[in-house]
Amino acid sequence: MTVSWIVTGLGIIVSLLGYYLTPNAWGYGILGFGLAHIVLGILDMFRQPVRDRDQSR
């Protein structure tokens, strides 16, 4: 869960950096990269760990 929060937090920071650079093509790329990390970090929070899935059978 801690790793998910770190990925999400870094995604927010990178997205803000990209937002301030948006008139430039690099800004849009950096913004998209940061937004992807935010989405992946949030999705990882809902994932069930492998060891819990194996014991639930």
Structural class: mainly alpha
- Backbone CA Rg: 15 Å
Query: How many H/I helices?
Result: 3
In whole angstroms, how far apart are the ends?
23 Å
Contiguous uncertain segments of 5+ residues: none
Order of helices and strands: HHH
Shape: elongated
Mean pLDDT: 89
Roughly what fraction of the amino acids lie in strands?
Answer: under 5%
Please give the share of residues in helix. over 70%
The total of beta strands comes to 0
Q: Tell me the major beta sheet.
A: none
Mind explaining what this structure looks like?
There is one protein chain. With 57 residues, this protein is mostly helical. The protein contains three helices and no strands. The longest helix has 22 residues, at 25-46.
Key phrases:
57 residues; mainly alpha; 0% strand
Topology:
Blueprint: H1 2-20, H2 25-46, H3 50-55
Briefly say what this structure is.
This protein has 57 residues and is an all-alpha fold.
